[in-house]
């Protein structure tokens, strides 16, 4: 009997390809919102695209202080940020191969959702579909905790055998992490390969719009080399 692998992440805004590579490597992917919001330089309310004159940042304006849980962060809809995003996307990707994603993003923006978590989650669902990912996706607004305690709670709640972490987690996961997971009956593994932020620094939106959904699928699954991708995205 194969083991059930779970992975989790906060719902980022327009996530990059590494986010979705982690998703395809898991059987269950959990979007957790009952954790600290990263207001300033975090990826929960902003991401970047490749413009003709350099990087272009798309940011969702939010209300309240930095000391909020992600699930409590409200969007500042007094600002017409949706229009700015749409104009930026049309300017940079109006001649893209496949406009399916553009249409879906425009439709999502028209809903004017109130919570940051909601627009991020809906955007993730759209990109997941475009990338052909079949991993089961759950939104969890209850599970909470820090460090290995959070991982253990997630594994227990979703009946997982193993927890999957991105390669960046190696910098802070200590021996105690693994001992606690093992003592609770759970395995742990890291993603060793996959699209890195250095190779693919932009939102997955960029690669889908520039190369089309089928080609973006190949990029995500390692079927297309970096050199070919860079030629497409210039």
Shape: globular
For the termini, the CA-CA separation is: 46 Å
Beta percentage is: 5-15%
User: Any low-confidence stretches, pLDDT <50, length ≥5?
Assistant: 225-234
User: Sheet bearing the most strands, described?
Assistant: 5 strands, parallel
The tally of helices reads: 9
Summarize the amount of helix as a percent range.
Answer: 25-40%
Trace the largest sheet across and list its strands. Answer: 5-2-1-6-7
SSE pattern: EHEEEHHHEHEHEHHH
Features of this protein?
234 residues, 5-stranded parallel sheet, two-stranded antiparallel ribbon, 7 strands, alpha/beta
Brief summary:
The protein contains 9 helices and 7 strands. It starts with a strand and ends with a helix. It has helices at 17-24, 81-93, 100-110, 116-130, 147-157, 175-183, 204-211, 213-220, 226-233, and strands spanning 5-9, 28-32, 46-51, 54-59, 136-140, 162-165, 187-190.
